[in-house]
Amino acid sequence: MRISFVGSGKVATHLAKAFAQQHQIIQIMSRNLPHAEKLAHQVGACAIDNYSQIEQEIDLLVIAVSDQSISSVIQAVHVFVPEQLIVHTSGSTDVKILSDIHSNAGVFYPLQTFSFERDIHWSDTPLLIEAEQANSLSILNALANSLTKRVYHYSSTQRLSLHLAAVFACNFSNYCYDMAKQTVDQAQVDFSLLYPLILETAKKATQHDPVQVQTGPAVRHDHNIVELHQNLLLKANRPDLKDIYQRLSQAIIARHHTQP
């Protein structure tokens, strides 16, 4: 396939590199030309910074930009590639943001966290696809299967629920790790001592129902320890962390109060 990208960030970078193993990457378009040039060099493509330069002889255009930019991008690119298949990579954006303007539209959403510092194991990564036309869905299905066998045909509503769950499972949990590090850094304690605990907790969450393996002072109704921790955070002049600790503890207590 001949594939071009609008966007040169984390998702675009990882997808373009993965696609380049089996397909031809034609162009990388970004308003920041040096960023486009960096990715284009890695995948053997041409870098552009203007929508009018988009090559029409392509099979697929991937819009890999921030959610709030998708609407303006599709309005800008539609006129230059009116027939080609165009997809976005967002977990929370409805396919209709494209299809209301461009009939040959779809979604190619990798359910994964991306950073420039780490490679993606595509064979383990679920890919959620959606398309308005049956032929386009078939094309996206074949493309997704070239990366992973974990391919799912989910609606925009279903994909949104997964994206919300991903925020809890990934973004919020990572902030909890950040808060944990802030806590031990202030006491000059080595954060790496928590690594085995972090890994074991994540492993249990993938092997059991998380509600069944919840541990800690809140689920044990150990109010003395909960109060001790909150007072410690206040003494450390961290009322923000104390508030989060209290709210999470209350949520855990409420959740397990309803369990049989």
Explain this structure.
The chain is α/β, with parallel strands linked by helices. The chain has two domains: 2-154, 3-Layer(aba) Sandwich (Rossmann fold), CATH 3.40.50.720; 160-257, N-(1-d-carboxylethyl)-l-norvaline Dehydrogenase, domain 2 (Orthogonal Bundle), CATH 1.10.1040.20. Helices cover 47% and strands 14% of the residues. The chain has nine helices and eight strands. The protein has helices spanning 10-19, 33-43, 70-77, 96-99, 134-145, 156-186, 195-207, 223-235, 239-257, and strands spanning 2-6, 24-29, 46-48, 60-63, 85-88, 105-110, 127-131, 151-153. The protein has an eight-stranded mixed sheet with strand order 3-2-1-4-5-6-7-8, with helices on both faces. α4 (96-99) links the parallel β5 (85-88) and β6 (105-110). The termini are far apart. The model has no long low-confidence stretch (mean pLDDT 96). Residues 2-87 form the Pyrroline-5-carboxylate reductase catalytic N-terminal domain. Residues 126-252 form the DUF2520 domain. Keywords: Oxidoreductase.
